[in-house]
Amino acid sequence: MKRRAEQEWLALFKQHEQSGLSAAEFCRKHQLNAKYFSKRQFDLNWKQSRKTANQSFIQVKRPELNLSPSSIQLTIGQTQLYLPQSIDANWLAILVKALT
């Protein structure tokens, strides 16, 4: 099997899109493994969508919070979450477990 660079795969996907052929027909015509073609297409589409998502990220400014001294502050990295002390302990435990 020939090793292809990411740009070569992207060119093949564009060719396929313009060909009007099904993926199976296109792969037969170009002697490609249809399952691998599909996998690479999925992987690279995901990669491209992540690049696009990162480019469209905007910074949100939060308003000043008037928190009572009785609130719970949960800090993970640069993210802070403030919760009232009346929060259900089981829910908080599930949240903390999910974040670890």
Question: Helix/strand/pairing class, anyone?
Answer: alpha+beta
Please tell me what the overall shape is.
elongated
Mean pLDDT: 82
> What's the SSE pattern?
HHHEEH
The low-confidence parts are: none
Helix residue percentage:
40-55%
Radius of gyration of CA atoms, rounded to a whole number: 24 Å
So what's the oligomer here?
single chain
Largest sheet: 2 strands, antiparallel
**Strand order of the main beta sheet, please?**
1-2
> Separation of termini?
41 Å
- Beta strands, count: 2
Please report the number of helical segments: 4
Strand content: 5-15%
Number of domains: 2
Question: How is the topology of this model organized?
Answer:
Layout lengths: L5 H14 L3 H7 L4 H22 L15 E6 L2 E6 L4 H11 L1
Antiparallel strand pairs: 1-2
